[in-house]
Amino acid sequence: YIMRDVEWGWLIRYMHSTGASLFFIVVYLHMFRGLIYGSYQKPRELVWILGMLIYLVLMAEAFMGYVLPWGQMSFWGAKVIISLFGAIPVIGNGLTEWIMGDYLPGDATLNRFFALHVIALPLVLLLLVVLHLGALHEVGSNNPDGVDIKKGPKGNRWDPSKPADGIPFHPYYTVKDLVGVGFLLIIAAFIIFFAPAFGGWFLEHDNFTEANRLVTPAHIKPVWYYTPYYAMLRVIPHKLSGVIVMFAAIAILFLVPWLDKAKAKSVRYRGWISKVAFGVLAVSFVWLGKIGAGPGTDPVETQIGRVLTFLYFAFFITMPIWTKLDKSKPVPERVTTHD
To answer: What is the C-alpha separation between 55 and 230, in angstroms, rounded?
Structure first.
């Protein structure tokens, strides 16, 4: 509808889809930066938990928005994801029908998803962002050294009562962020006008076809930012086990502040074990994303996916052990420069 009957609808759709993908790139980079610099450690546990809640709501917001264009992949993607609730014993089938409002995704599903996508979830997101920033303001931002500047000397050229290594949010952070936003907008413009589908990663080709419940696409897959978790779901042969693994992969991130026993917050001052572990996590997650975006018919790829899923969980489950065994370098008392 938006592509055919709305004035400049193509531009609105491409801006929306490109903006969503670029936003998730920023979110994943932000989360990984928080992991390697220990931004979840005391006293920032609440900041991390609120950030993870934002991530969860963002995923729900993006999924419901993905269903609304009502293309082939929108319909079948909604059917596959919502049917996962059917794996819950006893109440599963009833819960699935309650979420969809019917036996299959239809008008009732679209109406409730539209209300959630446009009004309810954005309000929840706004509240969580305010709480996230409030918690961050209370404890202060982390830095690549993982040094708590509030414990250091007081007094800088702006305020004698503030930490010596601290700088005002404005104009320093605002200008820095504006540069990043400007760079991202330039990239977004190139994608919107020259490669809006981005090779099928930002917009699947099947989603340019109107939804047809009688024709199943040859390959059903979610948008790229869900594919690592979708790969975990798909490589587990038992449906309920796959659903548990997929949701556990997200839930385990909430526990990171209490799993990490390292003395040094930042990876800069940790030993080789931590650096290898973070590298394995990054490679596993990206590779799982690639597998999740594929057809899922290659048995070798399925076995690789199981190994990568094991490595992903092993990173977190064994974190209390390897963070204790890893030898850390002395952490400076003040923020340093690294030329």
So the answer is: 16
CATH code for the domain in which residue 307 is found = 1.10.287
Say whether both 117 and 185 belong to one domain: yes
> pLDDT exceeding 70 applies to what percent of the chain?
99
The pLDDT score that the predictor gives to residue 11 is 92
| Domain stops at, among 214, 248, 272 | 214
Task: Report if residue 335 sits inside a domain.
Answer: no
pTM beyond 0.70: yes
Domain of 14, in residue numbers: 1-214
- From the list 279, 283, 252, 265, the residue with the least C-alpha distance to 323 is 265
Q: What's the CATH code of the domain at 89?
A: 1.20.810.10
* Last residue of one domain, picked from the residues 214, 244, 279: 214
Please determine, for residue 339, whether its predicted confidence score (pLDDT) is greater than 50.
Answer: no
Domain-located, residue 67 = yes
- List of residues 6+ apart from 262 with CB closer than 8 A: 38, 270, 274, 323, 324, 326, 328
94 and 73 together in one domain? yes
- What is the SS3 string spanning 139-187? HCCCCCCCCCHHHCCECCCCCCCCECCCCCHHHHHHHHHHHHHHHHHHH
Helix axes 239-251, 227-235, angle to 10 degrees: 140
What distance in Å separates the CA atoms of residue 261 and residue 331, rounded to the nearest whole number? 15
Q: How far apart are CA 179 and CA 218, in angstroms?
A: 42
User: What does the alpha-carbon distance between residue 331 and residue 238 come to, in Å, rounded to a whole number?
Assistant: 47
Query: What long-range pairs does 50-55 form, CB within 8 A, spacing at least 24?
Result: 50/128, 50/131, 50/132, 50/135, 51/132, 52/253, 52/254, 53/128, 54/125, 54/128, 54/129, 54/132, 55/27, 55/31, 55/250, 55/253
Instruction: Round to whole Å and give the CA distance between 162 and 154.
Output: 6
